[in-house]
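Risk mitigation, structural track. In case the binding assays with cytidine-5'-monophosphate fail to produce interpretable data, a predicted complex structure has been prepared as a fallback.
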Amino acid sequence: MLSEQEARDAIIIALDCDRETALDLADKLSGKAVWVKVGMTLFYRYGPVIVDDMRSRGLRVFLDLKLHDIPFQIRGAAHSASLCGADILSIHGLGGAAMIAEGRAGVEEAAAERGGERTRLVAISVLTSMDADALASIGVTDELSSEVARLASLAVGAGSDGIVCSPQEAADMRALLGPDALIVCPGVRPAGAELGDQKRVSTPAAAIAAGASKLVIGRPITHAADPAAAFEAIVEELMS
Ligand code: C5P
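Fallback model:
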């Protein structure tokens, strides 16, 4: 059970939409929500201005750009993303320890330049769109769960602040990574909500109980007739 402020702070609203809709949602949620997620679709079209749009409405930003390139490039990319206002930034565990360490160096440099809190890094382990066959097709023959655990440990050991994983993996990942890791979980549905294309889901309360630090929730809020009321209902669930 969370306090009201903890509950608000635990929810990241995924803005998978165009800028106009994102601004409308941000206006409706500002003062209530703390976090939004800006992904590649929105960022590649509108650029850093979309992050400014959110921050000027008092919202913090999870910039989900899933960085993956050579270490030198990732240092620059993480530095740039941090300067443009990302509070949390995603990076691919598959890029390896050297790449993640340079990503960490990039966000540290940016924090030293602009002052304030350092951008937190969260690593993607295995994309949830991949199954064992898809992994085997790229040469990974280990069990999927072992691959997830290996990449999660590698990423956090190399300087990532945490990982992104499904709520079903949250308890194992919390046990593996310890109490300080930032564990961000998409695939969350309030009881009775439409699943859409999500298959392995947990309720918000169950995901937090399993050890998630933050929940990425999109359509149950953004497609609701009253997004602010849908958000408040999830806050209530996390407080009870
Ligand atoms: O609308 P919905 O709540 O399903 O949105 C979940 C968000 O989390 C989307 O932005 C989606 O891209 C993201 N995500 C996911 N599953 C993952 C990783 C990210 O649904 N494994």
